[in-house]
Structures are given as C-alpha cells and as structure tokens.
Fold each of these.
Amino acid sequence: MFFMRMMLRSFSRQFGRRMLIAVTVCLSACVATAMLGVVFDVGDKLNAELSTYGSNITVQAKADAVVSDLYGDQSTPTAFLKESQVPRIKTIFWAYNITDFAPRLDLRGTVDQVGAPLVGTWFGRTVKVDSGESSAVGLKGLRPWWKVQGRWPKDEAGSAGRTEAMMGKELAARLGGRQVGDQVKVGLDGKQQTVTIVGIFDSGDSDASSLYLPTRALQEMSGLTDQIDQVEVKALTTPENDLARKAARNPAALSQDEWETWYCTAYPSSIAYQIEEAIPGSMAKQVRQVAALQGDVLQKTQAVMILMTVLSLLAAAIAVANLMASSISERSSEFALLKALGATDGAVSRLVLAETALIALVGALVGVLLGSGVAQIVGRVVFGSGITMRPMVFVLVFVLLALTVLLASISSIRSILRLRPAEVLHGR
C-alpha cells in the first residue's frame, strides 16, 4: 500500500515529465509496430506485387531444355510436351500458390505472306482437376501490362467458325496498319487459315512482332496435335535462401530434414521440382531475373524497416534516460530521505523501475494500437491491401521496449546507488 502511494505521489508531482516518457515510448512503439508488422508481411506483398510482371517459372520438354541450355534459345522447338497434361500443374502440393499458367507453341510462319512468329496459347480458359476444383488461367493473367486495343481473343472458334487472334503492334504496322476487325491469312507448312484480329497489343518487347492465336488453330495447321513446347507459370514463391540454392543444384544432396523443409516451403525450385513430378518428361526452370529481383527487393525493404525500428528504439532509450536522469536529480532529496529511514538501494531502485515500467506500459499500449493503424495505412498506400498483424509482432515490440526502458534506466539506477543521504540532506 505504501509502495502504491509513493508511485501515485510521484506521478502527481512530476506529471509533465512522466507524460513525456509515455509519449516517447508511445512514438517508439508506434514506429516499431508499424515497421515490424510490414516486415513480417512484406514477403507475400512483394511477391504478389512482382508476380504481376509475368511468369516466374517456365516448363519445357527435357530434351528441348537441354538444347536451350547448351546452345541458347532455339527458334524452332526440338521436343514437345502434351497440352492435355498441362492442367496437372494444379495438382501439386503448392497448387494454391500457382496463380496462373498458359502453354505456348512457338512456330515460324507467315501472316499475309509476310514472315512472322506464330504463338499458340490459351487466352482465357477454365481448367478442372480431378478434385473437382476449377481455375481460370491463360495469357490474359500473365500479361496484365500489355496495352490492348480491342479485346482478348476467345480460345473457342467464334461466329461462323472463325478463329480469333491478336496481333502485335509492330507486326500490324509492317502489314500496312492492320486494325481490329481485319482478317488475315496465316500460313504454315503450306497450309493457310483465315483468322480475325480482335486485338492489337503493345508489349514493349519482341512479342510486338508476333501473332497470337489459340493453340488448337496452330496445332491443326502444323499437324502437332496436343503438342506444345513450353508452359509459362506464375506462382507466389518464398525468396530463395542457402537451402533453396543447395536444392536447386542437387536435391539428392539434401538430408531428410532438409528435404522435408525444402519440399514443404514455396521456394521457386521446390515448386519447379513438383511440376516436373506432375508432368512426365518436363523440366521446370525458374526465371532467375524475377527470383533474384524478389529476393533483392525483399532484403533491402526489410533492412530499411528494421533500421528504422532500431533507430526509433535507440532514440527512445536516449530520451527516456535523459528524462529519468532529470527526474532523479529533482528527487534526490526524496531518495536520500528514504535511504536514511532505512530503505535499501534495491527497494529504491525497484520503486523507480516500477514507476517507469507503469508509465512505459501505458505508452506502449497506446503506441501499439497507433502502430497497427499506421501499418494498415502503409499497406494500403504502398501495396494496395492491408497488413496482416501477426501476434509475434506485438510480442517482439513489447520485449524490445522492455529491454530499451531497462537499458535507459540503468544509468539512473546507478546514480541512485551513489547517493549518500548525509551529503544530500545537508545540501552538499
């Protein structure tokens, strides 16, 4: 009871100084909660953001992939995969991380007697797997940055059995300025087919010189029934670490525990390995530029936010230490009297720590609530979605603040231990 009265008396006598300590801890808790909340959730947010820039895994026939590795990209495929096996991608362990995919059949043909790359693909298709679940996949989800004049083609034949296609901007210019609604003749291996252009796209790269049409149309002309040369896959992945890089080099070199950790984590190499298991004769490779970018951006973003958290805690420690030093200097006579009346150094130190801990707790609770709100604002402004505040964030913030306040209190407690009641009470 006496202990509580001493604490209440201290708050009433030095209310302004106590409020400054509370505000300091509150601001530090706010910054730490917001930054750590984003740090713990930024991986998924960045992966989702970067995945809008296309596929991060490509699947080829094993023989064709080996040739490409040895001699570079080949204009004509040398081996093929079965288009009917492509939906198996959604049966792997990480099926829910596969957000989109589309097969490709790349051949060289003519468009109105002008040589041009022909690409057979899925524009927008719903695939069903054995479990009964269905997913909407296709090139439309893989190329969200394309500027399309008109609309995306349909995979099925249109009215009067017409095949729909979309043409790159550069190819349209080469053909005399083709427009949406025009019909062109596509030639391949001596066969011709008339297609209707329903979209003109600007991709900003070499694709702008190509003609895209449904796989079935290109397969009919080439005689490659149910054949494709690659599949583009967009997946939400976890940035690679040493374990993932070790597995990418040789999965057989992993120990049992390493294998289970790697296989059950959404690394690009793990997802690629499982795709190879699902599609016989395939080789899945991650797009290294995308994977490296994800890891690099994630590490830099996390480093900046952790640095801001550390600086806020350091600033709080300095501010609290200075405020406590001033408070103890003003109360030196009070502490000297307590010691003269028989209070031990430990009892006086516990009183000071209890007072500081109580006011810091109030500031921390308010700061954590404010920090959670700031994290949501950061998520909405930067990533367009809210931040998931994990319980570990709050635990970590309170532990860090407790250590910070304790560290700030050490110098003040040492000054209490050095107090000599006789000298202080006599004004020396």
Amino acid sequence: MEKDRFNALGGIILDASISVHKELGPGLLESAYQLALAKELEIRDIYFRMYVPIDLIYKGVSLHKAYMMDFLV
C-alpha cells in the first residue's frame, strides 16, 4: 500500500535527521545540518534533490523561483 511506503520513508528520513543531530549537536548553521543530512540520505540510498525552486503564481503570472525547497525526497 502506498501509505505504508510513505510512512516507512518518513521514518527513514526522521531517523537520518536524528542521527545528524546526535552527531553534530546544536548550535551550527543550517547549512551544516543540510550538508550532513544530504550525506545521511545518500548513505541510506534515499533519492533526493536539494534547493529545488518553487514557482509562485500571482494573479496568473509566474514570479519565478519565489521559494526554494531545501530537500525534495
């Protein structure tokens, strides 16, 4: 079932995030945690992309790359 697959993937991502926090601890810049999480996801063979632009449509007009998604899994 698709729901079970997504729940399992969410558990893997959560576990990877906790692993990063345990290894690095608090107080670093967000960019350090992002790089470490990227490495954890690679180690766990999770396909992802970083810094994915999200288009914003305002009154029917694209404002281009208004947002950046840190991770897309």
Amino acid sequence: MSIKLLHGVHVPHRKNTADSVPVRIPTPKVITVPMSMNIGAPAKPVVKPGDTVKVGQMIGEPGGFVSSPVYSGVSGTVKKIEDILLFHGAVCPAVVIEADGEQAVYEGLKAPEVTDLDSFVDAVRMSGVVGLGGAGFPTAVKLKADPAKVDYICVNGAECEPYLTGDTRAMLDDTDLIVEGIAMLKKFYSPEAVYIGVEDNKPKAIEKLRAAVKGMDGVEVRALPALYPQGGEKVLIYHLTGRIVEEGKLPLDSGVIVINTTTLATLTNYIKTGMPLVERRITVDGSAVKNPMNVFAPIGTPLRDVIEFTGGFKSDPKKIILGGPMMGIATTDLDQPVVKNTGAILCFNAKDAEPPVPTACIKCGRCVAHCPMNLMPTDIERALELKRPEDLKELKVNLCIECGCCAFVCPAKRPLVQVNKLAKAELNAYNKKLKAEAEAKAAKEAAKNEAKGEVTAK
C-alpha cells in the first residue's frame, strides 16, 4: 500500500535514555493521588482518613461511564482527602497516603475472568488504565466497540516526541505482554489486520517486535519515518491504513482502534495478574538533569522525589515540562504528583528554557507547508485577532491536533499553537452562543404557535 506521507517536522530525537532499563525508585514517604487523571468524570474516593490501604487496593471508584478507577501504589495510612491544584490548572480531590514502607499487596487482588468481549472490556475498565501515551482517555471506553465496526487495530509505538523513551522500553522490556495483548484484541474484535507502527529511529524495538509476532496471522510491524507528529492518532491511522478520521469523528468511525504500547502492556499485565495501574514508567531527562534515566514511580509520588532519585539537578532548572517538549505542559511546582499519564519529566537550563521573542509574520508559509492537518495557521491567527469566529469555523481550526509543528518551524517565532488553542475556545463559545440563540428562537416560536392555537380554539 502506497500512501503519501502527511506533513510534519523533523525534530531532534534526543533519545538519550533509550538503553536505560527502568529502575524502581524507593517507596516515597507520602503520595498524593488525584481522583482526576483521565478525560471525563473524576473518580470518587472510597476511603477515608485513618483507613489502612495496600498496594493495588481501590481508593477511588469510577465517577461515570467516561471515568476510571484509582488504586494505591503504596501500603500505608490515608492521612487526608483534600482538593489540590493540578499542573494543568484543574482543581480536584486527592487522597493523601502516608506509606509504611512495607509495600504489602492487597489480599483481594486476583486476575479477572475474561471469557468474552464484555468481560474483557469490564476487565480493562477495572484495570484503571487510561491512554498512557499522554491522552488520558479511559481505555475501556475506547474498547467498548462493536467488533463488526473494527477493521483495523493500530498499536502505537511511534513515540515521536524528543527525549521520551518509555514506550521504547515497553516494546523492549514488555514485548511478551504486548504480543499477548494483541492476541486478545484479535480474538475479541477479529480485525482485518493489526499494525504496530514504530518510528524507524527505534531499530531494536522494531527487530524485537517483528521476531515476537512472526507467525501471527494478520499482524505486521511497520517501520514509519521518524517524522513528528507520527504518533498523533489521526496521523498514525492515515499512515498505517490510509483512512482519514473526519472532523468531529472518532477513530472507530473510520473502522480503527488505536492503542498505545505501554497501555496495552499494562492492561495485559492486569488481566494476567490482577495488579491494576499503580505506577508509571517515566523518562527523566533534559539539560538540567544530572543523570537522565528511566524510572518506575508509584502514581502520586511528588516530582521532587523522582528527580532526587536520579541525582537531582546539575544546573538550576528554568523550565520543567511534564510530557514531551512539543506537547507537554510546564509546571513550577515540584510537589506536584506523578499522574497516570506522566510519561516524562523534562528539566531544562536557562539557555534551553529561554522563550523566543516573536516578531512580525513574514508570510513565508512554512506553517502551512508543515501542518499535518493541512491547516492555515496564519489565517487562523488573523481571524482570531479580528474576532471572526465564523472564519475560524471555515478554516477548520477544530482539526488542529495541537502538535506545535507550526510554531516549531516559524522563523518569526509566532506562538501559533497557542493561538490555535485560543481560537478553538473562541469557536466553541461562538457555537454555544448560536445554539442558545437557536433554542431561544425555537422556544419563542413554540410559545407563539401555542398562543395561536388557543385563540383558534376559542
């Protein structure tokens, strides 16, 4: 199958920790576990201060259909439940646990009984797994799909962000779990094919996966060009299947399920052992970090503990990013906890953290040429400045995947991806306004017609 590659950019790889086998950090003295670590409704605490908890014990039950349970990664005592401010600005309840250092495993853990699709989806839901590639969407919601509508399953091993190597280590260290997970997906969804997409800058992972799936019917490992944002869901789907996910639609609407390699390995481990998601594999790197490496840390561990375990800073950090440098979110608080989708902690010195000074657009068109969604960032910026939300709709700003390619290639250093985020919010407010006006008009017409009917009846 010959597919023309979508646009993108060649970012520096900087996979410095690709050969770093993760090390498990010492049990933190205190963990703070947020109840909101996924897209959708937060979990509801099921413990109270003074309760004793153990590793793998549920401390938060799902708060709705699009939600995910939360489990303790340490054994110890619940000290309090308090509201905390997360790094992305949201406030949510969190369970604060003082660890006893024993790491005693909860006695009630057992592997779930999986016999059919429904029990498989139930098991995925109870695993606590969400999109661990960064999205945080509850995996069970994604997998609650009609098999008749699933043509392809795409396993995402692209890991296209610079520095990040957690998925690489999953492909190298948890190969068997990934392959067993693929076998389950094939059994319950019967797709035409399963494609494992891996950027070609990870030759060891490609080689090991190809050897592992050799002989599996309908499973293929595809080496993809290292072109950011190769791991973007819509980009990956197009490059692996040739299908396009239309505006406002989900991958399943195009007959595709996408699942990250770390996500797949984690849920497979739960189905085999009964141990839910309680810890994260994290890449710690950046110019301010003394010893870049991969680590395992319980969810809820303060960022400070993780960084101190790696040896601390070799220079004063001027920017700390949770996630990759292209799409991650900066934080200034090292007491923030590790959450389910914390794939990396990147710390940069003053030179690397210096923000560029924007200058006037020179109309070069690089942002347009490199946008993987074929958008026109300069026109979007202009429409936002002129407060023309109807133009934003025409310019399809909601197709923006916020990858940052436009800002990365802009010679004028315009903050284009930030502009696109603001433009989306502006368009959303405009659409809500139109909807409210339409509903008010309909209500007025209904009242008018009702009044006419009463007059006629008289």
